[in-house]
Design a protein that fits this description.
This protein has about 280 residues and is an alpha+beta fold. The protein has eight helices and 15 strands. The chain is globular and about 60 Å long. It binds succinic acid.
């Protein structure tokens, strides 16, 4: 296997690997897993694998989960379809920086995304290294956020465009999750800045040390959250991947965020994503 690093911060392409082989080859799978932990997102071209092989490979990391709003392939539970047709209005949730499903108490540990069909140009995906985003924060900000926690909501994201009854039913099934603002990566022990587009507010900001009068709570808390969320936008922490059919990205959802660039309308774009169940954050 040849490993070609794509930026100084994040991302590597794995060359000379067939993921179907890694379903049964423990050594190869261990090598891919090690590269994933090191580079946070790894990419492969020309993976002409079946949906069953896609699912079987992803399941080597752990059990898969479906998505309550995006549908899955009926024959392959756990394989979420992210399909865009030329006649579809732009989905608002696609082009924002996020880690997948942080509205779950245990957000996914990672995902394996395969491109089935893509426009000839456009529709790239970008990833950001949130370990580096934390490490390079000013020291006073690190101190300020050390014990902060934040709420993450499916209601305010996927639910926002739904009629109220549907939105409240979604919220009842998936109540807002609370995660530390600085998460410890369960495998590497690294500190990760863990707020994104699903984060609605800081849940324990309003203490006497931070808030003398009501005016200090807001915009104090909202400015701080906006600043933290904006760290993923810094190009030095990012990699950008150009898709071709049968290209695959595997990312560590605990230490990265991603952004699907929606510049390709009116074209088809068909992606299939296996999301792997992760750990609780505390
Ligand atoms: C995702 O947000 O998980 C999918 C990214 C993409 O479609 O490029």
């Amino acid at each position: 296997m040849k490993v070609e690093q794509l930026t100084c911060s994040i991302g590597a392409e794995l060359v000379g690997v067939n993921l179907a082989d890694a379903v049964h080859d423990d050594g190869l799978f261990a090598e891919i897993r090690a590269q994933l932990l090191k580079h946070r997102v790894v990419f492969l071209r020309d993976q002409d694998i079946t949906r069953a092989e896609h699912v079987a490979f992803a399941r080597r990391f752990g059990e898969l989960e479906d998505h309550p709003v995006a549908g899955s392939d009926p024959d392959h539970p756990g394989l979420v379809r992210i399909y865009k047709r030329p006649d579809q209005p732009a989905d608002r949730y696609e082009n924002s920086w996020h880690s997948d499903a942080t509205w779950r108490e245990a957000p996914p540990m990672g995902c394996v995304l395969r491109c089935v069909e893509c426009p000839p140009v456009g529709g790239d995906t970008m990833w950001a290294n949130m370990v580096e985003a934390y490490a390079r924060l000013p020291e006073d900000v690190k101190l300020k956020i050390a014990d902060l926690r934040a709420r993450h909501s499916i209601e305010a994201s996927f639910g926002a465009a739904m009629p109220i009854e549907k939105r409240l039913a979604l919220k009842a099934m998936y109540p807002d999750a609370e995660h530390p603002v600085v998460r410890t990566h369960p495998e590497t022990g690294e500190k990760v800045l863990f707020v994104n587009a699903f984060t609605t507010h800081l849940s324990n900001y309003h203490t006497p040390e931070r808030v003398r009068f009501g005016q200090d709570a807001n915009p104090g808390a909202s400015d701080l959250l906006r600043y933290l969320i904006s760290q993923a936008y810094i190009p030095e922490y990012q990699v950008r991947w150009r898709w071709k059919p049968n290209s695959i990205a595997i990312w560590d959802n605990r230490s990265t965020q991603h952004y699907a660039v929606m510049d390709y309308s009116p074209c088809h774009r068909k992606m299939e994503r296996a999301g792997i169940i992760g750990d609780k954050t505390y």
